[in-house]
Amino acid sequence: MAEQSAELSPLLKQATPVLAARGEGVYIYDEDDRRYLDFTAGIGVTSTGHCHPRVVEAAQRQVATLIHGQYTTVMHRPLLALTERLGGVLPRGVDRLFFVNSGSEAVEAALRLARQATGRQNAIVFQGSFHGRTMAAASLTTSGVKIRAGIGPLMPGVVVSPFPYAYRLGMSEDAAVEYALRELDYQFATVTSPQDTAAVFIEPVLGEGGYVPVPPAFLRGLRERADRHGFLLVADEVQTGFGRTGRFWGHDHAGITPDIVITAKGLASGFPLSAIAAPSALMEKAWPGSQGGTYGGNAVSCAAALATLDVIEEEGLVDNARVMGERLLAGLRGVAAEHSGIGDVRGLGLMVGNEFTTADGRPDTDTAARAHRIAADKGLLLLTCGPHGNVVRMIPPLIVTADQVDSAVAVWSEAVKEATAG
Ligand code: PMP
């Protein structure tokens, strides 16, 4: 056989050249043992911080006990225990669930369930939405054309309605909500009859689309329309769940209950696991055999998720996310006030975005990219987002401390100063 060594696909382009050797709490260490403050948490995945001892211990114990039990053949205790445990944190009545492996798979599962349960086909999403990269999930994704380009034809039946993005629209929040709800009603009058609409998918904080919290009045408007027209309200809590926004679920801020809740990322502190939950009357309408997969509810992931829930509860991480989120937002607004390049700083809990705009209000991708890179050089790992990549987002582990928030703000201030100089 010919000698060959493989190389990474250029598709796996890295935003920073950091080669992570290990992680501990809010820090990543590279192979030279240089320490980075990780304000990405792997897009919120390492909710309890890198390698939380409780999570490590639970996973290690489970690996040595039972790695995988195929739920179509045998049931196992971690899966049962996690199901019961999630019942305690899910919205009242949303108490039937099953597990898959990634956010995208859970989105696909929610769409299948919505179509089967309602007998209707169409789905509504909002401009800037991100629901994943598998074919149906990509069809529901509008956070940037790069996700959709070159892979069409996409799934038909997806209607895209404006998101109440007050800053981009140049409106007050109230006006943006009124506008977006009016446009949604217009879609119902012109594009998809409500009677053909199976579901509306929404992220409680627009994630990849730019870190824009959904105004509570908008979510309430969606709930009211879903009830009136008989379609389902699906909350994609992949980034916003498990305390990230300072409440357990992002939709808690609006005081509504969705019909389907999708969770992933923070659920198992980095182990691949996702879940969808719905009321039993709805879940029973799923066609047998149409959902699930080989690895869904893997025993090690379930054990890690149970430990994650323990840590969130015992360490008061939902409250910590709220308090630290407010501190971070205030610090970042202070930085923006000193530099003209940042047009908007917004967020909910530990999900905060800094939007770079030019003097005449256009997206400033270059300065955002520069600030992002300089921050990494100075030991602060961040992510960009938004269709133009001009939003620098901060999403640290939920265990972040006041000192770590203050250090991040200080480094960010230096990075912005250098990025906007001259
Ligand atoms: N939904 C949302 C809101 C997300 O942020 C993401 C991932 N960024 C997904 C779905 C897709 O998740 P995954 O990458 O695990 O497929």
Automatic annotation (TrEMBL):
<dbReference type="GO" id="GO:0047298">
    <property type="term" value="F:(S)-3-amino-2-methylpropionate transaminase activity"/>
</dbReference>
<keyword id="KW-0663">Pyridoxal phosphate</keyword>
<dbReference type="InterPro" id="IPR049704">
    <property type="entry name" value="Aminotrans_3_PPA_site"/>
</dbReference>
<comment type="similarity">
    <text>Belongs to the class-III pyridoxal-phosphate-dependent aminotransferase family.</text>
</comment>
<dbReference type="InterPro" id="IPR050103">
    <property type="entry name" value="Class-III_PLP-dep_AT"/>
</dbReference>
<comment type="pathway">
    <text>Amino-acid degradation; 4-aminobutanoate degradation.</text>
</comment>
<dbReference type="GO" id="GO:0034386">
    <property type="term" value="F:4-aminobutyrate:2-oxoglutarate transaminase activity"/>
</dbReference>
<dbReference type="InterPro" id="IPR015424">
    <property type="entry name" value="PyrdxlP-dep_Trfase"/>
</dbReference>
<dbReference type="InterPro" id="IPR015422">
    <property type="entry name" value="PyrdxlP-dep_Trfase_small"/>
</dbReference>
<keyword id="KW-0808">Transferase</keyword>
<dbReference type="GO" id="GO:0042802">
    <property type="term" value="F:identical protein binding"/>
</dbReference>
<dbReference type="InterPro" id="IPR005814">
    <property type="entry name" value="Aminotrans_3"/>
</dbReference>
<dbReference type="InterPro" id="IPR015421">
    <property type="entry name" value="PyrdxlP-dep_Trfase_major"/>
</dbReference>
<keyword id="KW-0032">Aminotransferase</keyword>
<dbReference type="GO" id="GO:0030170">
    <property type="term" value="F:pyridoxal phosphate binding"/>
</dbReference>
<protein>
    <recommendedName>
        <fullName>(S)-3-amino-2-methylpropionate transaminase</fullName>
        <ecNumber>2.6.1.19</ecNumber>
        <ecNumber>2.6.1.22</ecNumber>
    </recommendedName>
</protein>
<dbReference type="Pfam" id="PF00202">
    <property type="entry name" value="Aminotran_3"/>
</dbReference>
